[in-house]
Amino acid sequence: MAVHSKHPASAPPAPPVREKTGHLMLRGWCIFVMFMSLSGTAWVHAFGELTAAAITIAGGILSVILWFVIRPPVHWQRLPWFVVAYVACATLSLVWSAWPQTTALTLLLLWITTIQALFVGSVLTWRELVRAAASALKWVIALSIVFELWVAVFVQAPVLPGFVVGKADDPIEYWSRNNLFDWGARIQGIMGNANLLGPVALLAIIVFAIRIAAGAPRRALLWAWIAVSAYLFYRASSATAYVAAAGVLVVLATVLLMRRARRPGERTRYYIGYAVVGLGGLAVLYFFRTAIFSALGRDSDLTGREAIWEKVLERASERPWVGWGYATPWAPWDPAFDGWIIDHGQTVLQAHNMWVDIRMQLGIVGVVLLGLLYLAFIWRSWFFAVDRPRWDLRDDRPYSSLTLLPTLVGAIVLVQGLAESSPLLLWGWLFVVMLGSKIKQSPHVGEGPAEQSAAIERGEPEKQES
């Protein structure tokens, strides 16, 4: 019979600590929360506005209840205060809003999304957060493919919201245009909008690649998910997503170069090169936009966006400082928006530029607060990615691929925000708030309140501070 001593060389290996069922269910709920935000308008198209609103509100209430039950450790002094200031400004706009009902309803969506973002960031570790994001993106990518395949094989006709097969006055009304087997046409996925599908597919490629770099199991499957996501990214044919992908590549290349720097002066050269490439790219995009967008099959005015911006800025100039009141998205039934700007026979529901949108809604004050919010997010996420993890005298800890996610997400939402207002809600807002607050609460992968909470949930002894 084998005899083991207490010496490490002969002691039997201990099994890995298993997670409790409660923590597994919590992580499953966080996956669902991310899936709701990433799938966006799919809930409205599938179940209608009332049902989608009920699911969203119920989800927010459940997360608040879970937050009070779990009570994850939170450093209150490290809250994302610019997010708090922006949400407070939007809430105060109820006082002077020209469309109070729309402001109240959209504020509810803003509050729920913000709370969900803070909740997920506080209860998951960095590794769990990236893993949950990958799982949610798999659901979005898979359902988009299955939905388009179902339309192409079984319905064989365009589908309107509510799974209705019929003729629309304009193709923009279709949930799916039955273009899966038409290689030259765009597909829209479960969102019903190619401009929403493209950035999500790009995000999926990034998250799956980070998981591979982090040594996740079943890498062959992750490569397959990257291939499917790349296919959807290409078929969405979103000019905004293409530009965002170029921005992501520039940011990624610069971060990797920064990580190779060994002397203090090396990073200065990279920063100068990064600024030259960034400013040069913006100049080329502006002065040669006609040729660039023609090559991408788009109009030089970004498919009518410049005309929309002019009308929105004209209204914004009437209330320059505090705006007309928060409204993200615009309510089509509100007299202030119903028929105000028409595109393809449909009432426009956003300014197609998040800065122009907030300029009208919350005025110069709102633009400044949003600018400070994104400046703080980009600043923290950048150094989170380029600096080695350090909380003591040791300065040779290896970099983690997980730290790339926030800065690459920042590249996507900032580029997308130039042609869409979607970063102000849904997954764009949720990821910025979630990742920004996570960096403040847990600035090092493997160290922070959520990591401590997860260890306690697994039954590990609580670490004592030295």
Word description of this protein:
The protein is an all-alpha fold and 466 residues long. The protein contains 16 helices and four strands. Strand 1 and strand 2 (164-165) form a beta hairpin. It starts with 20 loop residues before the first helix and ends in a 9-residue tail after the last helix. The model is unreliable at 461-466 (pLDDT under 50).
Which key terms come to mind for this protein?
62% helix, two-stranded antiparallel sheet, disordered C terminus, 466 residues, 16 helices, mainly alpha
Structural class: mainly alpha
Query: What order do the SSEs take from the amino end to the carboxyl end, as H and E?
Result: HHHHHHEEHHHHHHEEHHHH
Helix content: 55-70%
Number of helices: 16
| N- to C-terminal distance | 42 Å
- Overall radius of gyration: 23 Å
- Order of strands side by side in the largest beta sheet? 1-2
Uncertain stretches of 5 or more adjacent residues: 461-466
Relative strand content = under 5%
Nearest-integer average pLDDT: 86
Q: What is the global morphology?
A: globular
Largest sheet: 2 strands, antiparallel
Tell me the number of strands. 4
In short:
With 466 residues, the chain is mainly α. Helix content is 62%, strand content 2%.
